[in-house]
């Protein structure tokens, strides 16, 4: 397939481009940042004209796309003022989704986030493990993730053959970033992420599986490692962090409290890079 990846110079974008190319796809990276070269075009996705033009075609790069992976965003609150996070990310996602619609690109996989599901969990979720049914935004970054999903849910009605897949990634850990797992035995470690994590290479695996399993309509999948990033048993963490919150399913000893059951069952997703193997004590 010919696939464009927005945010291709970022943490998840680099892993995704590598994986899709290794699988034999023709991949065009689209990002504000990055070095010129084959397979990359610099685009400011807050500009609708640039976005639409880049999806329709780019001289010496492509003359039409089969699918789009949308990862570009300001990835967290605090980097810029909160209103700027909202305006920038909202403009980027509207531009990308609507330009894809206009350009006739019907397979879209996009990055959502655990922030659309209650991060930083100052309020207890209604039940554990947290699945895709729970939506709660607590900052402007998360608000955009919720609004993207609302937009995608309507756009699939405008083009009934269109497929939008939201991957609700938890905190993405790059290969060299496992140092903080030195704190894994601390019961407060990753409390705001309900203990969860996912390796960037597994994030890329989820993107690849979502492209392969794309069906008309809008679907949401949580994406995390199957185990918690905390070395305290998950039932103990659940009881300590959220006393009184029902645990709906029997929990494996270190099972993630961010449920990936749906991604496992529907996409066949099973993260391969787990912190217990990746973390090397100093
Ligand atoms: N990093 C995480 O822990 C995490 C967790 C959940 C979801 N996500 C989501 O995953 C996606 C990728 O995150 P990441 O960690 O790779 O972030 P990143 O910051 O490493 O990469 C994002 C990329 O988007 C690009 N970008 C931003 N605004 C742009 C614009 N106007 N035009 C063109 N390019 C633009 C940036 O230049 C950057 O290369 C984002 O949508 C993010 O919200 C990330």
From TrEMBL:
MF terms in GO: oxidoreductase activity
UniProt KW keywords: NAD, Oxidoreductase
CDD domains: SDR_e (cd08946)
A Pfam match: Epimerase
Bilayer-spanning residue ranges: none
Gene3D superfamilies per UniProt: NAD(P)-binding Rossmann-like Domain
Domain NAD-dependent epimerase/dehydratase: 3-224
Superkingdom of this protein's organism: Bacteria
Family of the protein in this entry: Belongs to the NAD(P)-dependent epimerase/dehydratase family.
Name by which UniProt lists this protein: Nucleoside-diphosphate-sugar epimerase
Source organism: Diaminobutyricimonas aerilata
